[in-house]
Amino acid sequence: MVSEQEFAALKLELSVKAKNGIDFIVAASIIWAVITFVWTLPNSPAYNSFITFFVGGAMLPLAWMLSKVFRTTWKLPHNPLQPLGLWLNFAQLFYFPFLMFIYSKYPQYFIMTYGIITGAHFFPYAWFYNARPFAVMAGVIPVGCLVLGLRVAVANLYLIPTFIVCALLLLSGLLLRSYRQNKQAYTLASSTLSLTTA
User: Fold this and answer.
1) What is the CB-side half-sphere exposure of residue 42 using CA atoms within 13 A?
2) Which of 46, 60, 62, 191 is 20 to 30 A from 90, comparing alpha carbons?
3) How far apart are CA 37 and CA 187, in angstroms?
């Protein structure tokens, strides 16, 4: 059975080795920047929504490439918590039927809804990576998307993905700071565990 101290060390290891998933967040920033450009085009909201679906498909390959740049670790076979990260990421897919409903009935609200889902799915990562900025942005992004979605004209819907890009870039900076704090805690926890198990 894993002790509370060992469990905390496992979570810290995930944060440090994956660098709080910063490769995914930077990839998402790039994807949402492209989505912003899409929504500046003089197309109908339905057509821009359709393109947005395809742009989002580049997320995983881009995050994988950025993992090489940031030197993050995606697999930690010895850490039993590691597979949970993938499950948490896939959880947002269960919101897609609602997104499809919005697309088919109210396409002008598609980008708002997509942004809300994107932001809200960050919440469990605050626990997973021991990084509070995920919890903060899980509230800020959905509320910001809702306010913008209800207030801006259809011609200005590009403001929603623009807001998301800014929020994701801020999140990247906050996660980098959190990673540095967790790295120190992980080093201390590892040395403490080594002493107690020796």
Assistant:
1) 0
2) 46
3) 42
What is the distance between the alpha carbons of residues 84 and 87, in angstroms, rounded to a whole number?
5
What is the pTM (predicted TM-score) of this model?
A: 0.90
Instruction: Please choose, from the candidates 17, 4, 134, the residue with its C-alpha nearest in 3D space to the C-alpha of residue 79.
Output: 17
- What Å distances lie between residue 139 and 22, 43, 57, 122, 124, CA to CA? 19, 30, 24, 9, 12
Rounded CA separation 149/154 (Å) = 9
Per-residue confidence (pLDDT) for residue 193, from 0 to 100: 59
Q: What is the pLDDT of residue 197?
A: 45
Q: What are phi and psi of 106, to 5 degrees?
A: -135, 70
* Distance set, CA 192 to CA 54, 78, 123, 155, 163 (Å): 48, 19, 30, 58, 43
Tokens standing for 75? 């697999």
**DSSP H helix total and E strand total for the chain:** 10, 0
pLDDT band at 198 (very low <50, low <70, confident <90, very high): very low
> H helices within 44-131, ranges in order?
45-56, 59-70, 82-90, 96-105, 110-120, 123-128
